[in-house]
């Protein structure tokens, strides 16, 4: 009991002091994930497609589009393929993720290697649409949505797809257990959960607070199953779904077996090991 109190007090203290997984940790993790990120796109890209819906894209003028936290450029590439008259700025802070986009020789796209918040603060450009795929959890939405407003033209839109609370169900508990049992290996915790909306209602509320109205918003969920717990852990690592978690520990390789053991106990269902991805996606327009 005493050990538990000490553990949680230490963790709480780190959270208050903001000694948590930070921007630089996520950047390094995405550099590693860049070579295997296609696993995520193969499974989840079909849902990203729902926000790249030409129905919302005016075709009577050249559009200025910002692909924010663009990663390997899934959204930008899809837009270019649709032959829309546009000029895209694609921003991300992971140089390795961007490498996959830089090979693209297309004069309609400009690739910017920069922290997203710094970019929004410093740019003098205005955009008609911001696309924002699978990265909300890395930002404070209050700071971000104010900046989105600043860089959007009147009536501008945000197309977003994001994880929501309840995604990767049980994984946080698994990490907490392993952190507790290996407390001497823990450097710092993650606070990503606080940046996730509670589904489409929560997402709409967040946008409404900053002067955006809903055009369309939906909830979604995908279940991915594996034969072995090791495969589930590998999926979390190679897709970026658990980006940042490796930095919790001094030596992640020492911890992997403990994580596999906890996954084996907690995630077994009907002969398989199952993980859920809960998300919301939609289009929001500046009032
Ligand atoms: C899950 S990937 C999404 C990539 C892309 N939007 C997509 O839909 O495939 C998350 C991306 O957010 C980027 N990212 C996270 N925090 C960022 C920040 N502060 N500034 C710029 N990019 C950031 C990461 O480098 C990573 O490429």
CATH superfamily: Vaccinia Virus protein VP39
Q: Helicity level, as a percent range? A: 40-55%
How many discrete domains?
A: 1
**CATH C-level label:** Alpha Beta
Query: pLDDT below 50 for ≥5 consecutive residues: which ranges?
Result: none
CATH architecture: 3-Layer(aba) Sandwich
What ligands does this structure carry?
S-adenosylmethionine
Structural class assignment: alpha/beta
Report the β-strand fraction as a percent range: 15-25%
Distance between the amino and carboxyl termini: 53 Å
Largest sheet, described in full?
Answer: 8 strands, mixed
CATH topology: Rossmann fold
H/E series: HHHEHEHEHEHEHHEHHEE
- The residue-averaged pLDDT reads 93
Return Rg in Å: 20 Å
Q: Strand tally, please?
A: 8
Would you kindly provide a written description of the structure presented here, covering whatever features stand out?
By secondary structure, the protein is of the alpha/beta class. Helices cover 41% and strands 24% of the residues. The chain has a single domain, classed as Vaccinia Virus protein VP39 (Rossmann fold), CATH 3.40.50.150. The protein is built from 11 helices and 8 strands. Strands 1, 2, 3, 4, 5, 6, 7 and 8 form an 8-stranded mixed beta sheet that branches. Helix 4 links the parallel strand 1 and strand 2. The longest helix has 15 residues. The chain starts with a helix and ends with a strand.
